[in-house]
């Protein structure tokens, strides 16, 4: 046993002291973590501290957080009614079609990325959203608004993708 430990320690030392493996490591190029980065924690904070803060919103917040936990998505977006940042729903983005699909809350079932009016980033420090002067939906976007006519359209915003999106809708769970 003692010999095995010595050999194990010796092998471990030669690998961990940086002499042989260090030159082989080329740095971040091999490490592709950003593509799997999730804003779930940021959205959870935004819901808890800003959008749905307080006891009165707790049930709604918990239901939405539960839907987010069940979702395989790693990027979530909050839909606001307008620039006053009034919470309406949580969406996920289909990376292939760039279509936004409602996960919870109210709003059109699906929204094309071209229908997005304004985009926002949440600041955990300031506990508030800031408008981003851009139209590009990327991983840094935490919330968005749509033009007011889409709110009055009665579901017309769903377009051709509404049938496909309805598959992702969850049935009401009885307790």
TrEMBL record:
The record's region (Disordered) falls at 1-28
User: Matching InterPro entries, A to Z?
Assistant: CAMSAP, CKK_CAMSAP, CKK_dom_sf, PRC_barrel-like_sf
Q: Which residues form the CKK domain?
A: 27-163
**GO BP annotations listed:** cytoplasmic microtubule organization; negative regulation of microtubule depolymerization
Q: Which domain of life is it from?
A: Eukaryota
Q: Which Gene Ontology molecular function entries are recorded, alphabetically? A: calmodulin binding; microtubule minus-end binding
Which PROSITE patterns did the record assign?
CKK
Q: Which family does it belong to?
A: Belongs to the CAMSAP1 family.
Give the comment on domains.
Answer: The CKK domain binds microtubules.
Name under which the protein is recorded: CKK domain-containing protein
- Identify the species of origin: Seriola lalandi dorsalis
